[in-house]
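Worked problem 6 (solution included).
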Amino acid sequence: MTTKRITVLIDQPPRERMGVKEQVDLVLAALALEQEVTVVFVGNGVYHCCQPDPRPDQDPSAVYGSLALYDVDRLLVEAESLEVRGLLDADLRFGVERISRPELGDLLRAGDHVL
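Solution. The predicted structure is:
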């Protein structure tokens, strides 16, 4: 099987529980098929990287933080989305890497699939 570069954009806030579950399932399915997966948090999706839910079983950022254990190639957060919301690097909870909007555009053009 040919390896594909798949970029998953997370743009929904943490309270959108069904969307979070579907996104994580999608990422895990692609990883099970040994695809190259990059997860990018944009728009209100950046809150997954920043705000812990006081209820541990409801905290999707814990799930995203554990994706590195499953060999997700990169976890990225769009810098402009952070800045618009007044969020700083110190607010980030797990090993996400900042990416600028132009860099994100290059990433999306270089990938095989964007979901």
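Discussion: Residues 64 and 81 are 18 Å apart (CA to CA).
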